[in-house]
Amino acid sequence: MIGRPKFVLASGSPRRLALVNQAGIEPDALRPTDIDETPKKGELPRACANRLARGKADAALKMVGFDEELKGAYILAADTVVAVGRRILPKAELLDEAAQCLRLLSGRNHRVYTAICLVTPKEAFRQRLVETRVRFKRLSEQDIEAYLASGEWRGKAGGYAAQGIAGSFIVKMVGSYSNVVGLPLYETNVLLSGEGYPIHFGWLNAV
User: Fold this and answer.
1) Which end of the chain is more exposed for a tag (fewer CB within 10 A), N or C?
2) pTM to 2 decimals?
3) Which domain holds residue 134?
4) Interval 128-184: pLDDT, tens
5) Which of helix, strand or coil describes residue 177?
6) 2 domain-assigned
């Protein structure tokens, strides 16, 4: 597209792509990164999200460096962490992991942190961390078993997807909804516009 700088989303997440599209931005390229997302021993949720977002941005910048067409692009990376107190919940891949997450979240408050990291065309790094507080209803065994059977939990931080069936588990949310889905739109747009990206460029034909 002529008239705006290139934009690279350092993620393969369909949810993050949908949120970027919702903001009126169509990435020129997706560059998912393959970094170890295991929390370090004793690492706090905020620190973990910030470290992983920066790591993804670093890895994407290296990839983009090999592509002449994407040199000088804005690169956006993000990482979402779900935590109960200081305990970081996994991105559930196994049924047992998801079941454990749901039982832990049942009837309790938890926090969702998303760190966003933007690499500017001059290769400066800009980061923001957004926190949302979420309260789940008390889940019955039937709720848990039926949700596990849906398969929606697979690959999701904390073993649930707020934009799906699990939205019906949420009693209360304080903060950004899009943050819980995986990318806080308000903060992302503020970060991009503050670094000179023309966020309104794609709005004309967005509807």
Assistant:
1) C
2) 0.93
3) 7-203
4) 999 999 999 999 999 999 999 999 999 999 999 999 999 999 999 999 999 999 999
5) helix
6) no
